[in-house]
Amino acid sequence: MKIAKVLVSAEEIEAKLAEMGRAITEDYRGKDLLMIGVLKGAFIVMADLARHVDLPVEFDFMAVSSYGAATKSSGVVRILKDLDEEIEDRHVLIVEDIIDSGLTLHYLIRNLEVRNPASLELAALLVKDGIDRPPLDVRYEGFHIPPDFVVGYGLDYAGKYRNLPYVAVLAADG
Ligand code: IMP
Ligand code: MG
C-alpha cells in the first residue's frame, strides 16, 4: 500500500480546525464544555481542534469497536472504554475523525443521550459524500470527501498511517 493522492493537505486541515474552533468558542462561551473524543481515530483531531478552542474545556474519551467486516461498519458497536465521568447536565461535544456509514455515531449518540447531557453536539473533520446513512446532525464539520478509503490525521489502514499530517487516498496495490 502506498499513498496515491493527498486529498486534504496539512495546511487546509489547520485552517479548517481553526475555523471550527472559533465557532465552538463562540457557541459555548459561558458554558461548561466537555469534549469527548472517539478513540482511536479522533485523537489527533481532538488535540489540534481543542487548541483552537479558547474556553476552559474538559476532555474525556470513549473507545468503540464495530462488529462485522473490517472495512464496513455493521452498526453493532461494542464499548471498549467508556467515559471516565458522568455527563448528566454537561454540554457535550463528540469529536470524530470521519463519518462513513454513520452507524458508530448513531449508536454513540443514542448511548449518550440517555445519560441526560444538557446538550449533545457533533464535530467531525471528514464527512464522506454519496453514502446512504441515517440522518446525523453534524454541528461542526470540516470537509466533505468522496466515498473512498482514506488514511492519515488519525485514520488508519491496518493500524498504520494515523500519524500522517494530511489525509490521503491509498493506492489499491503496491
Ligand atoms: P462509520 O460508523 O461507518 O461512520 O465509521 C466508523 C469508523 O470507521 C470511523 O470513525 C473511522 O474510525 C473508521 N473509518 C470510516 N471510514 C474510514 C476510512 O476511509 N479510513 C479509515 N477509517 C475509516
Ligand atoms: Mg473512528
What does this 3D model show about the protein?
This protein is an alpha/beta fold and 174 residues long. It has 3 helices and 9 strands; from the N terminus they run βαβαβββαββββ. It has helices at 10-27, 43-50, 103-113, and strands at residues 3-8, 33-39, 58-66, 77-81, 91-99, 119-128, 140-145, 150-151, 167-170. The strands form 2 sheets. A 6-stranded mixed beta sheet has the order 4-3-2-5-6-7, sandwiched between helices. A 3-stranded antiparallel beta sheet has the order 1-9-8, covered by helices on one side. Helix 1 crosses helix 2 (43-50). The chain is globular and about 50 Å long. It starts with a strand and ends with a strand. Bound molecules: inosinic acid and magnesium ion.
Give a short account of the largest sheet. Answer: 6 strands, mixed
Distance between the termini: 5 Å
Order of helices and strands: EHEHEEEHEEEE
Report mean pLDDT, rounded to a whole number: 92
Measured by DSSP, the beta-strand proportion falls in: 25-35%
Instruction: Briefly note the structural class of the backbone.
Output: alpha/beta
Topology of helices and strands:
Elements: E1 3-8, H1 10-27, E2 33-39, H2 43-50, E3 58-66, E4 77-81, E5 91-99, H3 103-113, E6 119-128, E7 140-145, E8 150-151, E9 167-170
Parallel strand pairs: 2-3, 2-5, 5-6, 6-7
Antiparallel strand pairs: 1-9, 3-4, 8-9
Bound molecules: inosinic acid and magnesium ion.
Residues 38, 41-42, 97 line the site of magnesium ion (MG).
